[in-house]
Amino acid sequence: MHKEFYPKGVKTVGNRLRDPTFHTVQAQENRPNALTSGHRACQGCGEALGARYVIDAAVRATEGKVVVVNATGCLEVFSSQSPESAWQVPWVHSLFGNAAAVATGVAAAMRAKGTPDIRVVAQGGDGGTTDIGFGALSGMFERADDVLYVCYDNEAYMNTGVQRSSATPPAARTATTPVAGQAPGNVFGTGKSVPKLALAHGIAYVATASIAFLHDLEAKVFRAMSFHGARYLHVHVPCPLGWGTQPEDTLVHARNAVYSGMFPLFEGEYGHVTRAFHIENPIPVEMYLKGQRRFAHLFGKDGPNAERIQALQAIADAHIATFGLVAPQGDHA
Amino acid sequence: MKPFAITLDPSTSLQNHTGSWRMQRPVFRRLISPCNKACPAGENIQAWLALAEERKFFEAWQEIVKNNPFPACMGRACYHFCEKACNRAVFDETVAIHCVERFLGDKAIQEGWAYPAPPQRADAQKVLVIGAGPSGLSAAYHLALKGHHVTVLERQAEAGGMMRYGIPSYRLEKETLRAEIERLLRLGVTLQLNTDVTDLASARQGFAACYLALGAWKPRQLKDVQGPDVMTALDLLKEAQHASPLSGCVAVYGGGNTAFDAARTAKRLGAARVVIVYRNTAEHFSAHAEEIALAQQENIEMLPLRVIRRFSEKTLELDVMLPEKEGTLSPSGKTEKLAVTRLILAIGQEVETTLFKDLSHVTHAPDGTVSVDRHFATSEPGLFAGGDMIPSSRTITEAIGHGKNAAAAIDAYLSDSPLPTPDKIATATYDKLNTHYYEHAQKSEEQRSNAKTFHEVFKTFSEQEAVYEARRCFSCGNCFMCDTCYGVCPDNAICKHRTSNTPGNGLAFNYDYCKGCGLCARECPCGHIQMEQEEK
After folding, report:
1. What's the number of CA atoms in the CB half-sphere (13 Å) around residue A326?
2. Which residue from A4, A13, A46 is facing B486, i.e. has the nearest CB?
3. Which is nearest to B68 in space by CA: B27, B111, B100, B39?
4. Rounded distance between C-alpha atoms, residue B68 and residue B501, angstroms
């Protein structure tokens, strides 16, 4: 029905033709702006966008009763240069690796104070989540602490100078995986998928999201906040600086990551995948890789490196198969 | 006293004006949509579709009649140049603009909507218009809207020109035309029918300016092809509904829109077989593609590459032509015979020049078309001309555009003021759009009757169809308030002010914080945001 009547404006942030209940939080004039202007993120920063999208939705979902715990990382650095803060929510930062543990503590404190209705969101980058903070995170998961942990994944340690993390994709150039030798860039067969690991913990809710699909992202935050216990949201946020992309193209690359199958969007509850975001016609991975300087060595002066591009395509194809990203005809999400 | 180790008071990042990082700035800028650019009548199609999609039908109709007084007629009879230019055709299918226009035009007639009231002007002047066709009536309308007193003289018994006598009623029913002309006359325009002007100088007496819109009514003839079984397409079309029935095989000679109108009319008058004979290849038909397609659906036969050699005793003798390189034709030497009951000539019309024979400085081409400058002025002061009688594509829509632009030129001439030069606005081409934000949506097809009668072939859209189709519009180059820029700015540097009707429809950039990343411009679905270099 809505497709028939709203041929433009289904994917847009707002839509003047539709009832405001269909609008995203981001379309609202009085949106919380949890992360406000004046922060020092780079031009076209995907993480700044992702953090505002997620926390604004969390503020709405909890009617403003939310405390945010931040790991060290780009997000913390650019939003809280002392003495200024860009946060318009209660916000606490401790160390790089302990955001999950601090969040556990905040949730316990709220229980002890008799205000368990005040909810806790922890957030960090892929470094603070998949590498340094993973032990604390796993503990938070297995104890089923009442925390939503959000990882903004820009696929490397960006603010320290673009070093590889365990979320860096194969072949990507970083400061620690330089373009040198027979196999330039990050090594194939390394890294880990924390969303899958979170699912394996059997926690209440796990989802991946992308800043390019705002309606889907906000729905996932609302869904996450409807559960109690440990929850995990992994948001894909392109980084113009680390990826070597144009600032204005941040959402183009975010979209292509999803449309190629490189970044699968799915939801799971209590250990099982419950829903996948369907892509109608997957684009070749090559379309996603092109235009990113970190993958430029795949398209060198001797022509594209077909073998290594094919190896990346195989990763995307595996995602498509694993999560059923391409819906059967006539059944699109 | 401050706690230990805290030396600065906490504050907000809002005091950090990141706008100083910016090398380029986004600006909201309206671009002209390809449909608007293509419209010979100069309609702002994007604007009225935007109103129609909100179900503001009266406002949408008002937007159309700013430029074109006849939405109901043009929704039917215009060859929709807009749809041929529509960006949506690249994405899926063109927006059925003419169907929405027709819906709005019909609704206006049903509801009795009136044009805006003309202003009372102290300096109002008397203007004469000769010819009550689309161009003459359009000029009269726009002059009346500017507050002038207009008199229209028409040779025929009814107004409408080619809309009345040239377009068959299965494309445009006479009632619709009559309703729109009556509404126009209620603006205070004086119309004198059955008035054949033979002396231009005396007709112009008492008028400060005159607009000639005589049309092109003199059919070209073939020298050696005459007789009772030969008639011109115009004679057939003029009173087709009341014409005597045809039978057997009828040949129509020509490849333009008039030929196709005549062929379809002949079929309706009972001809068992209708053949369009044309000297060149079928690719050279100057008729519009949809006319050709409709004729084919009505089993009209096409016989291209045939030139008439002789017509006598109901037998058409044809030379078979061969196409040469560079588009030339040469006789193949072969001839063919075709038995026909009637031959209809549709090989073009010329302009009658008797009216300005005394004005030797008003120059005209051998076919009678009059030379005018870009303000439709002839070399005779105060005498303007437009429509089919000047070099043009000879469509009703272009004639309406001539009337509108000539009215503006006449008004400027009367008040001795210069014509405002229109702003140069860039076109919102497909590459300026971000089509990710649009959904594929099938075009609504017009309901159609297959009966070969003089009743209209196509039905007017229902309200639901019209709204749906209007919503298929991409709104190229013009904000449709989707809030995407507002949402995707990583620096919250776009604010909502509640003033509408400015570029951006009430959104404004906060240059204190905008870092100039360009995300808003890249993501804007309709290409309404441009990035401009900051001055050093």
Report:
1. 14
2. A13
3. B39
4. 22
Q: Do A13 and B512 touch (CB under 8 A)?
A: no
Q: Do A11 and B468 touch (CB under 8 A)?
A: no
Q: Please tell me the distance in Å from B470's CA to the nearest CA on chain A.
A: 10
End-to-end CA distance of chain A: 13
The C-alpha atoms of residue B22 and residue B15 are separated, in whole angstroms, by 16
Q: To the nearest whole angstrom, how far is the Cα of A74 from the nearest Cα of chain B?
A: 14
pLDDT tens string A229-263: 999 999 999 999 999 999 999 999 999 999 999 99
Residue whose entry in the numeric block shows the structure tokens 């230019």 = B85
> Min CA distance, A200 vs chain B (Å)?
33
Strands B342-345 and A266-269: unpaired
State the complex-level ipTM: 0.95
Round to whole Å and give the CA distance between B59 and B108: 11
Task: Let me know: does B78 contact B398? Beta carbons within 8 Å.
Answer: no
Sequential DSSP letters for B267-304: HHTT-SEEEEE-SS-GGG--S-HHHHHHHHHTT-EEE-
Q: Point out the least confidently predicted range of A292-301, B11-20, B68-77, B352-361.
A: B352-361
Q: Which residues in chain B are contacts of A29 at CB distance < 8 A?
A: 496
Contacts of B474 in chain A (CB under 8 A): 8
Residues B42-61: tens digit of each pLDDT? 999 999 999 999 999 999 99
User: Chain B within 8 Å of A271 (Cβ-Cβ)?
Assistant: no
Residue at B369: amino acid letter: T
Question: What residue has token string 């406000």?
Answer: A36
- List the single residue in A16, A29, A251 with the smallest CB-CB distance to B488: A251
Residue B40, preceding peptide bond in cis (omega within 30° of 0): no
Q: How many CB atoms lie within 10 A of CB B435?
A: 17
Assigned token pair, A258: 């999803």
Show the tokens assigned to B486: 């507002």
Domains of chain A in start order, with CATH, are 32-323 (3.40.50.970)
Bond preceding residue B420 cis, omega within 30 of 0: no
CB B87, CB B34: distance < 8 Å: yes
Window 151-210 of B: residues touching A by CB (8 A cutoff) are none
Cα distance between residue B156 and residue A154, in whole Å: 76
Question: What are the respective helix, strand and coil percentages of chain B, to the nearest 5?
Answer: 35, 20, 50
pLDDT digit string (tens) for B426-469? Answer: 999 999 999 999 988 999 989 988 888 899 999 999 999 999 99
